[in-house]
Write a structure and sequence with these properties.
- The chain is an all-alpha fold.
- It has one domain (about 1-60).
- Helices cover about 85% and strands about 0% of the residues.
- The protein is built from three helices and no strands.
Length: about 60
Amino acid sequence: MRNAFSSIPAMALDTLVFVTIAFFGLQPLLPLIIGVLAVKWIVGIIDIPFMYLSRLIMYR
């Protein structure tokens, strides 16, 4: 859980910079930024159990 919440600011900054550089002048930026952030956060939350499972397997 700590990993997901600690990476939120980094994901937000990464998304803001990437979407702005990649799509400036081509599409409205705010919907793209919100959509990309939502997908990243959802995947990050879904990923948590698998991270703990892999850690359990590695340190047995």
